[in-house]
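Example record

One chain of 180 residues, shown exactly as stored in the release files.
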Amino acid sequence: MKYYGTKNNKDYGFFLSNFYGAAAVEDEIWELLLKQQSEGAVIQPDSTGYPIAIYETTSLEDARSRKLDEIKKAFEDEINNTAHLTSSIDGFEIDARRVDGQNITMMIEYYVAPIPYKGYTSVRENTTLEELKVFKQEIYENGTALYAKKWVLEEQVAEAATPEEVGAISWDGSTPEQGE
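Predicted structure tokens for this chain:
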């Protein structure tokens, strides 16, 4: 893990240790950004402070490549760091990251008696085996939906006819209408 930001409000860069305002960057993304920089891109913060590679050219292929990198980063960030959902069980909010699915699988495998389960914002006391199984299924379905979203956006990128159309595609949902 690397961290991107500025410690003096003017010079941005990558750092090995975290600090206030820094954006966490997975090693795979960091390596990709360095590769893009060696190919002529300039690394700059986006509106959220996350580093992105900016190319002076705006060819369709460059726009597609950058957008696919952006989609991959947003997907990985959500599925690994921020995913959560409201369960069908009493509207209990649960974390839905990859690790949470793995943790629930282990809890089910070694289940002995009703246990407290820490969700996204609160603790559910006396969680039963059946409830854990529901949580696991809901986390699986949420992950499947995130993959489907990623695939739709990747398809939209491939179908975009101009760099501007590519630029309009976004993980947050502000994408061009598909199939029109």
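Notes: The beta strands are 2-6, 12-15, 23-25, 42-45, 51-54, 84-86, 93-95, 115-118, 123-127.
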